[in-house]
Each structure stands twice: as C-alpha cells, then as structure tokens.
Amino acid sequence: MRYLHTMVRVSDLDASLRFWCDHLGLTEVRRMDNEAGRFTLVFLAAPKDLDRSAADRSPELELTYNWDPETYSGGRNFGHLAYKVDDIHATCQKLMDAGITINRPPRDGRMAFVRSPDGISIELLQEGQALTPAEPWISMPNEGSW
User: Hey, which residues are catalytic here?
Assistant: First the structure.
C-alpha cells in the first residue's frame, strides 16, 4: 500500500491557493478542470516532496473546487484519504471478511471506498492497470456515502 493524497473541498480556490501556497509554502504541481463535472482539482506538494510528487504523484494535497456554490457542513469539506493497493479485489475481500463495509465496491477493478471507524472516507486505487471486473464486486451496490 502507498499513500497518495488527502482531498479537501474549498469554497474559494484563489483564497485557498494563497493560504496553502503563498503562506504555507506548498507548490501547485498539477491542475485539472472538468467542464462536465463542473469542478477543478488542484494538487499541491510540499517543497521536500516535489521530486516524489513528480515521480509518483504522492504525497499530495488535492484541493477540490466545485464551480456551483455549496455550503460545507459536517466535515463535507474534507473528502478522503487515498491509497494505492497491489490487488484491490483481495484488499476489499480482506476488509469485508473483517466486517468492514465496502461503501463503493471496486466494480471497475480500479477504485473502491471504505470508511474508518470514525467515518473518515478512504479511497482505494488499484496499482497499475485496473483488474478485470469480477464478482462479487460487479453486482454489489453502493452502501452509505463515501
């Protein structure tokens, strides 16, 4: 397993970038505007992590700016932690066998979400290419939120 990023939603992208970059000293390493989804993702890295960020895209902070105004409450501004795993199917099976709810099953062989006992959302991503979609994941519905 490898740590990737932490995602937080921001309501004012310019003010957030001033805080994280100008004041705290992080560096913007990439940005993605998604017209269809109406959001912008900005990935930041600490100065001593820039080489690792360039090579591995980790460890990073992901700022998510939704173009349509939204009031964040109840921790909605904090999105998730993300980890790459060697075998997403085996990882989800191990978690499920331990009684952990798979909130978003890896139906695509690439991505799943679970929650910690404290309700922290955790994104699991398949290292490398997506695995071939397989049961029980293909037909398993989402449960709760992530």
Answer: 123
